[in-house]
Design goal:
- With 163 residues, the chain is α+β, with helices and mostly antiparallel strands.
- The chain has a single domain, classed as Nuclear Transport Factor 2, Chain: A (Roll).
- Helix content is 22%, strand content 41%.
- It has 3 helices and 7 strands, in the order ααββαβββββ.
- Strands 1, 2, 3, 4, 5, 6 and 7 form a 7-stranded mixed beta sheet that branches.
- The protein is globular, with a radius of gyration of 16 Å.
- The relative contact order is 0.22.
- The model has no long low-confidence stretch (mean pLDDT 91).
- Pfam families: Ring_hydroxyl_B.
Length: 163
């Protein structure tokens, strides 16, 4: 059964998206990682309108284990890619609840700008983030975070942190 969330639930879902971005900006990667469901995925498609991340090449297609490995690498004081250390900032439009799927969760759409700086270099990306959130043990969890970059099919530089 598809139903529309009430205003309090909608605000809680929207607050979750804002909180997730803040955790990334503050480099609280462990708390961010804990927002993912056990079967959670972080996906950045390689081409516009890509339908499948498993059977097609993607910029990133990572489960919780791969995300944890990336987080541990970022914490390593000798990580060459983090000399000097990267910093990031998310600027989000207000998230919109696109679909309410009852027990299957909620889907949100959020246009964004993302900047990542390291030393004298700054990268800027824009696109749309799509969250699939599910209730798990009384808390919201990310089943899938899909980042559709505006220029996903361009030759892109290496992004060190998480969008």
């Amino acid at each position: 059964m598809i139903h529309s969330p009430d205003s309090a639930l909608r605000e809680a879902l929207i607050d979750f998206v804002y909180r997730e971005a803040r955790l990334l900006d503050e480099k609280n990667f462990d708390a961010w990682h804990n927002l993912f469901a056990e079967d959670g995925l972080y996906w950045i498609p390689l081409v516009p309108n890509q339908q499948d991340g498993l059977n097609h090449v993607s910029l990133m297609y990572e489960d919780r284990l791969l995300l944890k490995l990336r987080i541990e690498r970022l914490k390593e004081p000798r990580a060459f890619s983090q000399q000097p250390e990267s910093r990031c900032q998310h600027v989000l439009q207000r998230p919109e609840v696109e679909a309410a799927e009852g027990e299957a969760g909620y889907r949100l759409r959020t246009p964004f700008f993302y900047a990542e700086a390291r030393g004298d270099e700054q990268l800027i990306f824009t696109g749309v983030v799509r969250h699939h959130l599910v209730g798990e043990n009384g808390a919201w969890r990310i089943r899938e975070k899909r980042i559709d970059l505006l220029n996903c099919d361009a030759a892109l530089p290496s992004v060190q942190l998480f969008m």
